[in-house]
Predict the structure.
Amino acid sequence: MTIHLEYRGQEAHLLIDRADKRNAMNMAMWQAMPALLDEAQANSKARVLILRSAQGGAFSAGADIRELLANKDDADWRAANQNAINAVQHKLARLSMPTLAFVEGDCIGAGCGLALACDMRIGTQRARFGITPAKLGLVYPLHDVKLLVDLVGPGQARRMLFTGSLLDCDEALSIGLIELIATDPDPMIAALLVASPHAIRENKRMVRKVLDGQVAEDDETAQMFARAFTLPDFAEGTAAFVDKRKPDFGD
């Protein structure tokens, strides 16, 4: 399996496992991902999804260029491939559970798109980031461009898209492409697992609404805010605060 799930307690690890091709993404991998994302989301024990390389090294060198060249004259294949990519990116960006990309090496092109679709990104000192379609005469998908612009702003997005330059982890951090530089994702995972699952899920929905263009409160968002006061997570969280202990929100 070139992409697969592993569960470690409350963690779902989605592993890109094609090291001989620097984890380049082919159509079969794109087509397999939606079912894996659905499986992780349906697992009642899983509280966080971590997207990473199975063997360290490159997170993903991007699309499988040899496969693209072999099918460049097949319009049906190209459309199916783009549909598969779009389906993954849309689902990953809107998964109800928190998602974290852990990048240990190169994160390029379509691989960078996968990291963009996660809620947060952690890079090691060896991580490099780039969006290189301009070097191949290609165009980056609109959904992925929006994810990029939302993170780094239009100016930095243009620089990355127009030049295809590779950014080291320090520069990626400085422009907001990643949130942390760390040798492993465990501290962030631990922080996510301590927090209220309901609060994370609903705050994630709120952020998505803002990113999708909502700027004013409506009945749905008002109810999301008000309902939290009636739920067990609020009772446990406030009790823990008063008792000066860590909250226990259950599995």
